[in-house]
Specification:
It catalyses: alpha-D-glucosamine 6-phosphate + H2O = beta-D-fructose 6-phosphate + NH4(+). It contains eight helices and ten strands. By secondary structure, it is α/β, with parallel strands linked by helices. It has a seven-stranded parallel β-sheet, sandwiched between helices. Strands 4-8-7 form a three-stranded antiparallel β-sheet. Strand 2, helix 2 and strand 3 form a beta-alpha-beta unit. Bound molecules: fructose -6-phosphate (F6R).
């Protein structure tokens, strides 16, 4: 995997937005997999600025969710469908009909999970999947010890993840216990994985994912199995990487035309 160390979250957002803009110019109807949470917001803001300035036209882009809470009422502002509509689909001028996501309020959740995996395949697969990382090493909501071959399914959130996400709700009690998440096997089918991590709170998880062994106990370590995975980290999130200087030197020597 390629590890790119940037000064701060804004620089990481711009770098990844540039890669997305290049993808959209190459493939105007690219299927873009989007993560929610705080980390990717600078990416969406930077890309929205490029759309607003006319530098890129994202109107034909298709978007798909990485995960969704189970049990939140339709239209709840913190459902990931609402978040992706608000933070990605509307600012980028994407057609709402081109937006795929799992149905977290389905009566038959296992059937909804299978249907979502099938919908992703029918759409031709994800061109670029944006990922964040949990403090416990999760990607999507594949919590520690998720199978590295897992498909989209229902998962139970760890207490740590519910506490981390409580800031989006009025209290910890309101954070759902269950989610539908793309499985690790599903995520690995995307053609390019781009993980952004910022802040010292992610440093340990990043070091384990990048420099530790591939292990289900650190779900993000599965990126090591992907032929095109990029990990973009700010200085704080890179602070526990033993190979940080090597990663800096490698990226500095990379020809600019190669992109991410
Ligand atoms: C969200 C998701 C999660 C988050 C992770 C980090 O769709 O899949 O894996 O990316 O929990 O969240 P933040 O960015 O809020 O620290």
């Amino acid at each position: 995997m390629e590890v790119v160390i940037v000064p701060d979250a804004t620089a990481g957002g711009s770098l990844i937005a540039d890669a997305l803009a290049a993808l959209v110019r190459r493939k105007p109807d690219a299927l873009l997999g989007v993560a929610t949470g705080s980390t990717p917001l600078p990416i969406y803001e930077a890309l929205a600025a490029q759309v607003a300035s006319g530098a890129v036209d994202a109107s034909r882009v298709r978007v798909c969710q990485l995960d969704e809470y189970v049990g939140l009422p339709a239209g709840h502002p913190e459902s990931y469908r609402s978040v992706v509509l608000r933070e990605v689909v509307e600012p980028l001028g994407i057609d709402k009909g081109s937006f795929l996501g799992p149905d977290g309020s389905a009566d038959d959740i296992p059937a909804a999970c299978t249907a979502y995996d099938e919908a992703l395949r029918a759409a031709g697969g994800v061109d670029l999947q944006i990922l964040g990382i949990g403090t416990d090493g999760h990607i999507g909501f594949n919590e520690p010890c998720s199978s590295l071959a897992s498909r989209t399914r229902i998962k139970t959130l760890t207490r740590q993840t519910r506490e981390d996400n409580a800031r989006f709700f009025d209290s910890l009690d309101e954070v759902p216990h269950h989610v539908i998440t793309q499985g690790i096997g599903t995520i690995l089918e995307a053609r390019h994985l781009v993980l952004l991590a910022t802040g010292a709170g992610k440093a340990h998880a990043v070091a384990q994912a990048v420099e530790g062994p591939v292990a289900a106990v650190v779900p993000a370590s599965a990126l090591q199995l992907h032929p095109h995975a990029t990990v973009v980290v700010d200085e704080a999130a890179a602070s526990e990487l033993k190979l940080a200087d090597y990663f800096r030197a490698t990226y500095a020597a990379k020809p600019e035309w190669q992109g991410l």
